[in-house]
Every structure is written in C-alpha cells, then in structure tokens.
Amino acid sequence: MKKELISNRLFCILSGISGIAGVLMLIVSFNINPGPPPGATDEQLISFGHQYYSSILWGAWLQAVGPFFIVLFAIALITQAGAARQFSGMLTLFGAGTLMTVSLIEITFYIAVLFKDPPLSHLIGLNLIYSVQHLYFIIAAPALFIPLGFVILCSDLIHRLFGWTAIGIGLSFALLGILFLFQLALPMLVTAFAGIQVFWWLSASISLMMRSGK
C-alpha cells in the first residue's frame, strides 16, 4: 500500500513537471517568435523571415513539443481521476488529439513561410497560419477544456475551481470563435486571450504536485 502511494505521488509530481515544462516552452516560443507586423508588405515579410530565421524555427519546435507535454499532463489528470473510460474522459482525449493536430498544422506553416520557392510561399503560408488560428477557438480549445473541466469536477484530484475555470475558458474560446468567424485574420487582442490557458495549465500543474501527497 505504501509503495503504491509513493508510486502515485511520483506520477503526480512527474505529471506536474510535464505540464510546467510545456508551459515554459510555449512562453519562450512566444517571446522568440513575435510574428510579422500586421499588414506587412511583401518586402517586409521577406526581411522578417531573414531576420528571425532561427527564431522562427526554434519557436516552431517549442510550439510543437510544448503542447505535447501539456497533453501528457491532461492525460495524467484523466488517468488519476479514473475517468479514462468515462464519457468526459474520452471526450478529453479527443480534444487533446484535436489540439495537437491543429497545433502541428500551424507549426508546419511556420516553417513553410521560410521557403523561397515558389516566390509567394511566405504569403500563402502566413494566410494559412491565420486560417488555422481560427480552429483553436472554434474547436481545439473548447474540445479539450470543457470535458477536462467535468473530469476535474467529478474527482477530488485538484480543487474544483480548476474544473469550473476550465469549462469557462473552453466556452470563452468557443464564443470568440463565433464572434470573430468572419475576420479572416484574428485581432491581436483575441489571439492574446489564448495566453490565459498558459496560466491555467501552470496553476493546475502546481496544484497537482502540491496535492500529490494527499
């Protein structure tokens, strides 16, 4: 029994570390890859690509690997809550897969904008990035946060407040996805709102580690 408790505690700690590592990777990626200025001309986009070539590639790597560690943390929550075979748990797994898929598609276009041939590849890639960003709000974030919130509410793994806030974040993403559906490039304030999830994952990861002994 004692060995099992130690094993569960270690699992929770490692899971929390995974979530924190994913968050830190995303924070670093956002800071080293600021994105081109809004309404940039063709010449400005080419210049931006040359200037931030390494930063864009490292940012792409971090934004591909970071969500993976966050998804690992989400799956750990499902496992520890015993919800893997429950409806909310299965929906969360679907949402995690959807989020990773959307994230990897966007990262692919980050790399695509750096190609010099064909000449308009950077413009096409940038437009595709703007297009994919809509998917985070329309389906990816809501499909993960809302069912994960119910997983937390139906367990005593971490504080129930995280469950309610997860549902609130998911619904907020879905609402913004509808409100700004007809703006092909999402406003900066809307994309900046996505950063709120970073604080949630960080807080939830720390909370799981702190409650691991219980």
Give the SSE map.
Blueprint: H1 2-32, H2 42-51, H3 53-80, H4 87-112, H5 121-153, H6 160-179, H7 188-193, H8 196-210
Helix pairs in contact: 1-3, 1-8, 3-4, 4-5, 5-6, 6-8
Q: Could you walk me through the main structural features you see in this protein, from its secondary elements to its overall organization?
A:
By secondary structure, the protein is an all-alpha fold. It has one domain (2-210). 79% of the residues lie in helices and 0% in strands. The protein has 8 helices and no strands. The protein has helices at 2-32, 42-51, 53-80, 87-112, 121-153, 160-179, 188-193, 196-210. Helix 1 (2-32) packs antiparallel against helix 3 (53-80) and helix 5 runs antiparallel to helix 6 (160-179). The model has no long low-confidence stretch (mean pLDDT 89).
Give the overall average pLDDT: 89
Which percent band covers the strand fraction?
A: under 5%
Order of helices and strands: HHHHHHHH
Number of strands: 0
Distance between the termini: 14 Å
* Count of structural domains: 1
